Amino acid sequence: MSAEVLARLAARHLDLVRAPFTLPSSRLLVFRDDMANDPHAAASGIRIHTAEYEKPLDACRVIDRLEVRAADGRPRTVVDVLPDRIVFDGGASLTYAGPTAVSVAAPNGAQVAWTLPDGTRDTVESPAGDQIAVRIEVGRDRSVMAARSATHDADQAATSATWREWFERCPIVRDDLQEMTAFCWWVLGANIVALPRLGDVRAVVPSKIGYVGLWQWDAYFIATGLRHGDPALAREQLDLALRFPTSDGQLPDVVHEAGTLASSDDLPAADREHLRRDGSAVADADAPIPLTKPPLTAWAVRKLLEVAPDDEWARKVLPVIERSQDWWFAHSDADGDGMPEYAHPYSSGLDDSPIFDGTLPIASPDLGAYLVLQDLELAELCEQLNTGDPLAHRRRAHHTMTLLRRMWHPEQHAFLAGSRPTDAVVGLMPLLTGMLSPDIVGHLTDALSDPARYGTLWGLPTVAVDDSDFSPERMWRGPVWINTNVLVAEGLERSGLHTSARRLREHTVRLVIHGGGPHEYFNPRTGQKARAATTAFGWSAALFVDLAVRLSA
């Protein structure tokens, strides 16, 4: 299947509402200017925003409205959106002129007009019988400079070449999964952001809408999908996630262009306000709290090495992962019982989960499971590379497993976090260890099919349906997330339940197709995007690609 065909498949989802027009490594985003209206109706104007770390879309407006007008002044409507251009009726088009500019070409007699956020308006008119092209450059301060251009055709060719090269790497999968795979591959390319302050570095961010940085956990999931078409870019994500450990080995939560987020002292003001609003006990901590993400590093490295073996690189990253694993036991075990805890909701990746409504720090079954899994993965990596002490990793994994089993509450048939009674998806993660008794595995698989707990029509809710904390729309309090589905499916596989694992994987790809794309999270009752969820979300796209490849084998 050609790159052009794959690009056309992806283009079926480029509506300028849920999927903006953008370019790999660019910070510019082009939307239709009437996003509140019917996205299927014809759009006559577009608007342009920048993508910035921890800044909402509305704060990053560059052009409030840009339109192409016919000779009689009537706006031309958008008739097609492709990865490399937006096409207006009458023959006008918009493309990228490098990562910091767009170029608009319009036929003779037409006008290109735009309005800035401060109300300033400008218009460029084509002479009779002549075509015009206007290049609009956006500065880092959101300043706008416009001038006539003689390079539109060359700009169009360069943009087309960028996307053609990207789609040449798109995995070819089952026919019923190919269209969504092409769109998800577009999402991964669209979410590439250059981080020039860190050198010649590209981060595949969760979303250019606010999430403009490399979150550690996201990098692991995103690399898992990227490995199938661009293992070098996948490796780049892991290298960036591992590049800035603290002196004691802790990996930062986020790497962004202005530095890292590794402590509660580094939290943006908006995050602090969010925590205060939710009544979090750590909104204004007395002392800095380390911020990291769950230890799935070795899991992601192993996934990449499966398709792109590289012992030299593996030897380089192994000590960094081992030190980060040691950090959890040495610096995140407040009660000293041998089982590390989450000291801050952000370190779990499940920020709004009700397990954090109580006292922190909190020991949670998902963290215990990830630590066991990571030590097992590290042991295998040490053996493969003939280095380190695999036996020490296995001993610690078995000791952690002993402590993890104590979180099982037989009367509720659930693993619970701390003293919280919440029946949450974190209690399914011990399946990842592959070391549970058949009796416990049986109870967990029963929960997966029970409609009162996790057996909803559209996948695994992040809180059981019959739990008082369940909410189908509120982030980690009920909606379905692709990454938790994927981890539970892998847990079923590691626990010997291959048919159940495949069933959950098939269910997950059907959810994404039904919901119209790789959203951040989904309503478990409707299978549609939850109201506040971000669209074109990086790890959802990457994990769909990974699932599609696996299910097509």
> Main sheet, how many strands, which sense, barrel?
6 strands, antiparallel
- Largest sheet strand order: 4-5-6-7-10-11
Q: Pairing-aware structural class of the strands and helices?
A: alpha+beta
Roughly how many Å apart are the termini? 17 Å
Low-confidence stretches: none
Radius of gyration (CA) equals 24 Å
Q: Given the C-alpha coordinates, what overall shape results?
A: elongated
Task: Please characterize this protein's 3D structure.
With about 550 residues, this protein is an alpha+beta fold. The protein has a domain at about 5-165. It has 14 helices and 18 strands. It has helices at about 5-10, 150-165, 175-190, 215-225, 230-240, 270-275, 295-305, 310-330, 365-385, 390-405, 440-450, 480-495, 500-515, 540-550, and strands at about 30, 45-50, 60-70, 80, 85-90, 95, 100-105, 110-115, 120-125, 130-140, 145-150, 190-195, 200-205, 215, 255, 260, 410, 415. Helix 4 packs parallel to helix 7 and helix 4 runs parallel beside helix 14. The mean pLDDT is about 95.
Summarize the topology.
Layout: H1 3-11, E1 28-32, E2 46-50, E3 61-69, E4 78-82, E5 85-88, E6 93-96, E7 101-106, E8 111-115, E9 121-125, E10 132-138, E11 144-148, H2 152-167, H3 175-190, E12 192-194, E13 202-204, E14 214-215, H4 216-226, H5 231-241, E15 254-256, E16 259-261, H6 269-277, H7 297-307, H8 311-331, H9 365-385, H10 390-405, E17 408-409, E18 414-415, H11 438-449, H12 482-494, H13 498-515, H14 538-552
Helix pairs in contact: 1-2, 1-3, 3-14, 4-5, 4-7, 4-14, 5-7, 7-8, 7-9, 8-9, 9-10, 12-13, 13-14
